[in-house]
Specification:
With 252 residues, the protein is mainly alpha-helical. It has ten helices and five strands; from the N terminus they run βαααββααααββααα. It has helices spanning 17-35, 37-43, 47-52, 79-82, 90-111, 113-134, 146-159, 178-198, 209-229, 237-244; strands at 2-7, 58-62, 65-69, 164-169, 172-177. Strand 2 (58-62) and strand 3 form a beta hairpin. The longest helix has 22 residues, at 90-111.
Length: 252
């Protein structure tokens, strides 16, 4: 198991303000959830609500127990955005934000702040619909930034495949290309997702593998589109660094 802890950011000459803002928003909303537990059940994504467009309120009986569904915003599709910034517990929050902190800054600098924000939201939306498509009648609440962050990982894999990622591998610190770390991560999502859904795991809750896969594929697609359409190096911190030191390897 490879667990990334940092990457090579030597060529970033300024903070990634959008990524930092996303981290702060996720933390603040998590704190709000702790103060207002009912918010979580009203503003999470319920697949059946998204597929039907109708708000569901009341108690439902699931194999895992009784679930109380609370009133959602109107229209109910707003939960697609709210759930993207919500988390179930500290481990859920910490794991997602670690990946965003490691990989988000490079992708943000490559796209630019506003484009990166749009890219992040689109990845999260695609991830949500991928999860809903797996079980349109599902009642398990879905929440978390992992779908959007999976998109960041997909774009990073396309844009920076040779960038070094520092990771823990069987209690040892190693430095390996991003294509290895993120390629293995993506493969694990497909394999684990296939096993989980073949066993009917969605209604038991747990990891939203379909959201991970949907976001990851969206990130790959948008990253590839950027590489095909952006033929020349745009004005960025990477280009300025290259002009200062021609020995620096280009990212394109």
């Amino acid at each position: 198991m490879i667990f990334p802890i940092s990457d090579d950011d030597r060529h970033l000459l300024r903070p990634a303000y959008v990524s930092i803002g996303l981290v702060v928003m996720n933390v603040l909303l998590f704190l709000w959830q702790q103060l207002h537990p009912e918010f979580t059940y009203g503003w999470s994504v319920i697949p059946r609500e998204i597929s039907t467009g109708q708000d569901l309120v009341g108690k439902v009986v699931l194999p895992s127990g009784v679930l109380q569904l609370l009133e959602s915003p109107s229209p109910v599709y707003l939960t697609i955005f709210s759930a993207m910034f919500m988390h179930g517990d500290l481990m859920h929050l910490g794991g997602n934000l670690l990946y965003l902190w490691i990989f988000g800054d490079n992708v943000e600098h490559r796209f630019g702040g506003l484009k990166f924000l749009a890219f992040y939201l689109v990845s999260g939306i695609v991830a949500t619909f991928a999860q809903v498509a797996m079980n349109p009648q599902g009642l398990i609440p879905n929440l978390g930034a992992s779908g959007a962050i999976s998109g960041v990982l997909g774009a990073y894999l396309v844009l920076f495949p040779r960038n070094k990622v520092n990771a823990i591998f069987f209690f040892r610190l190693v430095s390996v290309p991003a294509v290895v770390v993120l390629g293995m991560w993506g493969l694990m999502q497909f394999v684990s997702g296939a096993g989980e859904y073949s066993a009917g795991g969605e209604e038991r809750g747990g990891v939203a593998y379909a959201a991970h896969i949907g976001g990851f594929v969206a990130g790959l697609a948008m990253g590839l589109f950027a590489r095909m359409t952006m033929k020349t190096e745009p004005d960025s911190v990477f280009r300025r660094q290259y002009e200062r030191d021609p020995r620096v390897r280009r990212y394109w």
